């Protein structure tokens, strides 16, 4: 039986701890009576707001946790995107698709930092909304491109095993995003907030599926002095199994 690479746990831990952090923000905001609970009916009032993720993390102490969660998620999400790019680079016939996917996720992660660091009520909402649009829009594009490449590349003959769930999750992310904006336009804030939470959870679940392919791979960075031939970063990432591994 083959051993799983330790990198298997990176996507899983990323999804779990990011989701847990966002729910901590939500419960802090509910406890402080800043937002209406998701299970309740929203009634316009001065003291409570609809339970959008950004509103939940808009005021201290929840805002402190929210900023930290978003910044860490953006950083680790970018690392996942780079690792996925290097994993697929030797096997894709259309490199622009792989590069475009990495660019999309990188910009989505940058949008996450805007959402986390520029809260709605403390700065101009335009900057916050730009970050939200980047995160949701480019994140959804990343999901569809990765789903397509999963089937096309078919790593370890697991293309269908990983690709079908990813297509389903991509459809769920897209449906929730369209529903979110449609309900927002109709000012149905309670339902829109629920769609937003579902969208984020589906997106995190999608990124967690990278554990399927990561369990076969070992990633390492090799550093050499000026006397040695230059070694590119992509050349230092190698595939390993139970019986074969690269060591420094």
Q: Short description, anyone?
A:
The protein is built from eight helices and two strands; from the N terminus they run H-H-H-H-H-H-H-H-E-E. The protein has helices at 9-31, 53-56, 62-88, 95-117, 125-153, 159-185, 189-208, 211-214, and strands at residues 217-219, 237-239. Helix 1 (9-31) runs antiparallel to helix 7 (189-208), helix 5 packs antiparallel against helix 6 (159-185) and helix 6 (159-185) runs antiparallel to helix 7.
Report on the structure:
This protein is mainly alpha-helical and 248 residues long. 63% of the residues lie in helices and 2% in strands. Strands 1-2 form a two-stranded antiparallel ribbon. Helix 1 runs antiparallel to helix 7. Residues 231-248 have low confidence and may be disordered.
